[in-house]
Amino acid sequence: MDIRKLQIPGPLVIVPRKFGDARGFLSETYSEDLFCANVAPVRFVQDNHSYSEHANTIRGIHFQVPPHAQGKLVRVVRGAILDVAVDLRAGSPSFGRHVSVELSATNWSQMWIPEGFGHGFCTLEPHTDVIYKLSAPYHPDSERGIAWNDPDLAIAWPFGQEPYLSDRDRKHPRFAESSVYF
Questions:
Q1: Is 62 a catalytic residue?
Q2: pLDDT tens track for 108-124
């Protein structure tokens, strides 16, 4: 497992090793012992699978508030995304800043997004499958969001057309209008 730090403290890029031969490959995409020893002492309790039919689909920016906050380990098994994490931790030197990383089935990278970060992604290819592990179960009353296109966040989403969005994601407040939860 290769681990890379990003421009703000917290999120990490993790690249699991792949062992290939004429048949294909084998990859240990998650090991609790290795993850806890090298990344964070986290227990994952839920796995989610997101499928997006179209490129330029945005999901997010989502998070859950304490005591149901979630850490996420995100990976792509088909297609590609621009994965984004926004620091929501009051008092953090990177509060209100974001990092973005391309995750794809080709580069086999994963992104660890700890509690205290909003998360969203934009599909770069049609028929994209994203799988992510969660450190807390889904709790509808704790779910919140931030506007994906907030100019204060200045996220450089990689598309030239109107994105595919859910009605819910169209209605999230801007970062400055959001309460501080972390």
A1: yes
A2: 999 999 999 999 999 99
